[in-house]
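Lecture notes, part 5. Sequence design as translation. It can be helpful to think of inverse folding as translation between two languages: the language of shapes and the language of residues. The source text, in structure tokens, appears below.
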């Protein structure tokens, strides 16, 4: 069949999301969802939700939600944009700053959506290898990214889970001649964040999501903070009504339930510490994590065999084949019971080899 697609689209592969199996009784630890339910306030909000708000178009710029974010960050509404998940934000950023003559740079390994979004734009991608074992940024990172127009950094990084020092991030933002996108999908589980960089530098965008710490992956809500001129540019690129009325209202209710949010984050971090200890005791190599997952290599390094065995036992984690990542699996932090199940199956696997 004759193709009428742009050549870039014809040539590229699409993004492959983590599997969402339909089977019940799975221990699902593959897409970094939060194991705890979203804020109870949402139930009341939905029960009282005026259906007339669904008849009408939603607020195209989600002002009430942006005002809530702005007030928490101590900034103004024009420094915030809302997205249909943070992927929507990333899409806008790549549309804005990546093109055939405007290359993209990103660490490797990192969130696999970045190269896909670059390919959609026909933009070349420079993948900068993180240091083997530690997944730290290489010392000559700034030299390697020179010439790119957009630098995309997930901090903490996915799928490795580690973060990069704040001082290094500040230096990168100061010295890189281009736009820096700091994807903070996991920042709520981390020791620190880059909010200040987005507020104080004109070339920095920090994005956040409600999919992880707020337990709202199914809702699709994210946002970004940047200089007002950058936000105004991104506004030109977004879908007209990118956030539906329900998402705006539900997101706001979840955002305002700060006590519950903190409680969930604390629980996830406690369970993370417990699982880390157990895996280390079993001889795993585990990357220090500031996220809601652990990137862990079993003793002997047969990440793929371990992944397959877990899967046969209905424990689903994420596996990233390849010379650097293939020794590891990425395990989402679940409930204590789910972690016990994972460890039981893991011990069986280790003892049967
Ligand atoms: C680094 C990173 N950024 C962004 C996302 C996407 O988040 P959202 O659900 O808000 O689109 C993910 C999801 O796994 C992620 O790992």
């Amino acid at each position: 069949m004759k193709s009428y697609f742009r050549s870039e689209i014809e040539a590229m592969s699409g993004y492959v999301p983590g599997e969402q199996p339909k089977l019940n009784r799975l221990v699902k630890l593959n897409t970094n969802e939060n194991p705890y339910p979203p804020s109870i306030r949402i139930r009341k909000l939905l029960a009282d939700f005026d259906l007339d708000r669904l008849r009408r178009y939603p607020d195209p710029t989600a002002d009430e939600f942006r005002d809530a974010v702005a007030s928490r960050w101590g900034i103004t509404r024009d420094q915030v944009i809302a997205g249909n998940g943070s992927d929507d934000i990333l899409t806008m950023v790549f549309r804005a700053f990546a093109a055939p003559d405007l290359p993209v740079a990103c660490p490797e390994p990192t969130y696999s959506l970045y190269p896909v979004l670059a390919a959609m734009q026909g933009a070349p991608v420079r993948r900068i290898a993180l240091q083997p074992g530690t997944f730290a940024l290489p010392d000559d990172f700034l030299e390697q990214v020179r010439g790119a127009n957009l630098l995309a950094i997930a901090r903490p990084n996915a799928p490795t889970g580690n973060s990069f020092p704040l001082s290094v991030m500040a230096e990168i933002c100061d010295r890189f001649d281009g736009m820096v996108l700091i994807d903070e999908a996991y920042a709520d589980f981390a020791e620190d964040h880059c909010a200040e960089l987005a507020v104080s530098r004109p070339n920095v965008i920090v994005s956040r999501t409600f999919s992880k710490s707020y337990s709202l992956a199914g809702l699709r809500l994210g946002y970004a903070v940047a200089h007002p001129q950058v936000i105004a540019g991104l506004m030109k690129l977004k879908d007209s009504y990118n956030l539906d009325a329900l998402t705006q209202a539900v997101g706001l209710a979840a955002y305002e339930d700060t006590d519950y949010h903190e409680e969930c984050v604390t629980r996830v971090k406690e369970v993370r510490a417990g699982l880390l200890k157990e895996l280390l005791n079993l001889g795993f190599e585990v990357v220090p994590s500031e996220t809601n997952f652990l990137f862990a290599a079993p003793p002997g390094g047969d990440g793929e065999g371990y992944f397959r065995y877990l899967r046969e036992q209905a424990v689903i984690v994420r596996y990233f084949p390849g010379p650097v990542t293939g020794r590891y699996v990425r395990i989402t932090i679940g409930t204590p019971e789910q972690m016990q199940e994972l460890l039981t199956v893991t011990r069986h696997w280790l003892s049967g080899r």
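The translated text above is only one of many valid answers, since several sequences can fold into similar shapes. The first strand starts at residue 27 and ends at 28.
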